[in-house]
Write a structure and sequence with these properties.
- The complex is a heterodimer.
- Chain A is of the alpha/beta class.
- Chain A folds into 2 domains: about 210 residues, Rossmann fold (3-Layer(aba) Sandwich); about 60 residues, Alpha-Beta Plaits.
- Chain A has 11 helices and 9 strands.
- Chain A has a 9-stranded mixed sheet, sandwiched between helices.
- In chain A, helix 5 runs parallel beside helix 6.
- In chain B, helix 1 crosses helix 11 and helix 5 runs parallel beside helix 6.
- Chain B folds into 2 domains: about 210 residues, Rossmann fold, CATH 3.40.50.300; about 60 residues, Alpha-Beta Plaits, CATH 3.30.70.20.
- In chain B, the strands form 2 sheets. Chain B has a 9-stranded mixed sheet with strand order 3-6-7-2-8-1-9-10-11, sandwiched between helices. A two-stranded antiparallel sheet of chain B has the order 4-5.
- In chain B, strand 6 and strand 7 form a beta hairpin.
- Classes of the chains: A alpha/beta, B alpha/beta.
- The interface between A and B is large, with 59 and 56 residues.
Chain lengths: ~290, ~300
């Protein structure tokens, strides 16, 4: 059986071009499973339109408390123990504030509180037009436990990779450095960081790099929209050198990337000879080399 | 610095101070321009003699300070509660482990181990421990900084420590700094899950900053449904507008979501952004866009009062 390698695309800052680049890379890598781990705002399926949803799985998140007013003796214990101000004076639990800790449920002397698991989203295992596996998920609006759903997506992707004897899982990650990002990063073989040459891009790059170092993951950096500000490109290069990060190159700003997205296709299919496409092909070659070694 | 290009006494507000209001900026998709729009509106309002407070609730990747350039005044470590186990009293009965909903406690051999990053600080374990072996301590997950920024804007942001998964408690602590008598501009993180809910839950209205692309529209729809669940008045700012993107227009009109302002795609804006500058200070032709935004937000809230 083939060794499965997992590669994740992250950025720290949102909107640097993770998903556009992920979509382009999917058309360059042969033989892979694709996973979209940006579970609260999944976008990859807009470009890689699934041919068929093979299975749809319910994602059960945490539990939520609900007070049964018939049995409630209005003793106020629940309101005292709740640290999240989730219970009103009329003993109604606000599901938005309830973190599902169960303190009220376990401590209610009248046993008046229901505490049941909630549906928090869906995980989809799909087949792409090229007959590859593509896993993505939808967290219901405003839900918690996005990290847990990311773990679920990755598990399903690994199952698919085993089934198909595929050596690579290509993961599109979420922005930020919190719970779902940590869950997308743990145990991967390689992280591709997409940044942009702006002060916010650099600021957020440093934080995501600290996180990646924390997990000791091999990482490399790509600068997207590189012609916005050459000074920051130089700063990013210097930063990579100092931190021992591989610098993979630049992708110039190209309005064709947005055009491709509007046509629901990748830049490589939309404008194969554009500067951006050529840059992405070069970067892909370098990533292949890295993946051979990790 | 060329602040003089701004109009000296904008009349759009009437002569009075505006009412207090809390305006949250969200988007779903990252990088649509939330922070750009939020800082420029804050700047515009402050320039119009309003008292403005800017709260950056994107604690994973806070960026507002890059533009508003606050001077450090106060930095407070942000702490959350967590259990501390007295090994002499602990009988390894496993009650705490079986009650914890977050898998933050694990019983290994005769020891209860704590995974602090998973703990939500609910205090249940301390309450139910039959031998009283659990006390509560505190641990630091980040910091909250409060400072004065440009034009006397009261600036607050939270910075989550790298490796900490939970933004929620830190967002709450950023919001403990609400000041009365101020217009609050609240910058939310990207996404549509609990950190966004925690950010917008007590706002008077939510401004969705979007761009005319399929990705942004897809995520806008989810973000709008979050705000609708919370019963918030919602308005939309279309950023990087370049010709009509019909799916977005259709969606907005079908759902009766008002467009509060439009900002065109302009390389000059991108360049000013990439230098950490306030757009309306450097490109005064865009002052009107933010004046329009301010007026429309005011209207959005007035309509709400009559609902």
């Amino acid at each position: 059986m083939t060794d499965i390698k997992e590669m994740v695309i992250v950025s720290g800052k949102g909107g640097t071009g993770k998903t556009s680049i992920a979509a382009a890379l999917t058309s360059l890598f042969k033989d892979k499973v694709i996973a979209d781990c940006d579970v609260d705002a999944a976008n990859l399926h807009i470009i890689i339109t699934p041919e068929e949803v093979v299975s749809q799985k319910e994602f059960i998140g945490g539990k939520k408390a609900r007070i049964n007013l018939d049995r409630c003796i209005q003793c106020d214990v629940c309101r005292d123990v709740c640290r999240y101000d989730a219970i009103s004076e009329k003993f109604v639990v606000d599901p938005v504030s309830c973190e599902g800790c169960g303190a009220c449920y376990y401590l209610c002397p009248a046993k008046a509180i229901d505490f049941t698991p909630q549906l928090a989203g869906y995980c989809y295992i799909c087949r792409t037009p090229l007959n590859e596996s593509f896993v993505f998920a939808e967290l219901l609006p405003g839900e918690e436990n996005s990290g847990k759903l990311v773990a679920e997506v990755r598990n399903e992707a690994r199952e698919e990779a085993k089934k198909r004897d595929t050596g690579l899982i290509l993961i599109d990650g979420p922005p930020g450095i919190g719970c779902p990002v940590i869950s997308s990063l743990t145990g991967v073989n390689f992280a591709l960081i997409v940044t942009e040459p702006t002060p916010t891009g650099v600021h957020d790059l440093k934080r995501i790099c600290d996180l990646i170092n924390h997990f000791k993951i091999k990482a490399a950096v790509v600068v997207n929209k590189s012609d916005i500000n050459p000074d920051y490109v130089e700063e990013i290069k210097r930063y990579c050198e100092n931190e021992g990060l591989t610098y993979l190159g630049e992708i110039p700003y190209d309005s064709k990337i947005t055009e491709a997205q509007k046509n629901m296709t990748t830049i490589l299919d939309f404008a194969p000879d554009s500067e951006a496409s050529r840059a992405i092909k070069e970067i892909h070659k370098k990533i292949q080399k890295i993946l051979e070694d990790v | 610095m060329n602040r003089n290009v701004l109009i000296a006494q904008p009349q759009w507000l009437g002569r009075d101070k505006m009412d207090d209001m809390r305006i949250a900026f969200a988007s779903g998709k990252g990088g649509t321009g939330k922070t750009t729009v939020a800082v420029n509106l804050a700047y515009f309002l402050a320039y119009s003699k309003q008292q403005v407070q800017y709260l950056d609730c994107d604690v994973e990747e806070p960026n507002g300070h890059i533009f508003l350039k606050p001077h450090i005044e106060e930095m407070t470590p942000a702490q959350v509660m967590m259990p501390v186990i007295d090994k002499d009293k602990c009988t390894a009965c496993g009650e705490c482990v079986s009650h914890c909903q977050f898998n933050a406690l694990v019983l290994i051999l005769k020891d209860v181990l704590i995974f602090p990053e998973l703990c939500h600080g609910c205090g249940l374990c301390a309450r139910i421990c039959p031998t009283g072996a659990i006390k509560e301590g505190k641990r630091v997950i980040g910091s909250v900084e409060q400072r004065k920024a440009f034009l006397n804007i009261d600036f607050v942001h939270g910075i989550l420590n790298v490796g900490e998964p939970m933004a929620g408690p830190l967002i709450q602590q950023v919001k403990h700094n609400y000041k009365e008598g101020y217009i609050q501009i609240i910058d939310a993180p990207p996404g549509t899950s609990c950190p966004v809910v925690k950010t917008i839950v007590d706002a008077d209205c939510v401004v969705m900053v979007t761009e005319p692309t399929p990705f942004a529209l897809h995520d806008l729809k989810i973000a709008v449904s979050v705000a609708q669940t919370l019963n918030k008045p919602i308005g939309v700012v279309i950023n990087r507008e370049n010709g009509e993107f019909k799916p977005l227009m259709d969606y907005l009109s079908k759902n009766r979501l008002p467009i509060l302002a439009t900002i065109p795609e302009d390389k000059n804006i991108a360049r000013q952004y990439s230098e950490g500058n306030i757009i309306i200070e450097r490109l005064p032709q865009y002052i009107d866009n933010f004046m329009e935004l301010a007026i429309n937000i005011k209207k959005l809230l007035e309509i709400k009062q009559f609902r």
